[in-house]
Amino acid sequence: MKAELLLALTATAAGTICHGFTIPPPTSTRGLTSLSESSSDGSGGEFALLFDCDGVIIETEELHRLAYNAAFKEFDLKIEGGDVEWSVPYYDVLQNTVGGGKNKMFYHFRNTTKAFPTFDGGTAAPANPEEEQELVDRLQARKTDLYKELIAEKATPRPGVLELMDQALADPTVRVGV
Ligand SMILES: *[C@@H]1O[C@H](CO)[C@@H](O)[C@H](O)[C@H]1NC(C)=O
To answer: What is the pTM of this model?
Structure first.
């Protein structure tokens, strides 16, 4: 009941679809044993197909970008009179540079624009780190809600992913997990 091969699907933040790779048999099979035990028919899998979430099952990068921009627009963020908007190529770089939503915004305002925005139709830009944090917290909270709406409306699985899952689920030698 030892998995000899793990096929892992991964995606880079830039959106590369997937790649498979092999790893040697693990020295501890504890996690793999419990994976087998949890199967309904009691049979063990020779293979495991593991999916990552973001970017693998669904291409989410663009939806994150749209949600940020929608939040920026709602808050009426302006820097020197200009809107704050993340383009596709810029967001791609951001994705690969900074982890986490709030960190992306801090990076943008501190490293890229080197200024925090005014907001809500002219409210002065944050004047100290506490105010900066507060604005970023509010933006992130709103972005999260907008993102959930976008996922509900627009998210579709990547081509072939559901077919691959169905094939793997139908094969008793393959365990499937997220
Ligand atoms: C942003 O700028 C700061 C200060 O110059 C620097 O220390 C930091 O490494 C920069 N962040 C990234 C992700 O480049």
So the answer is: 0.69
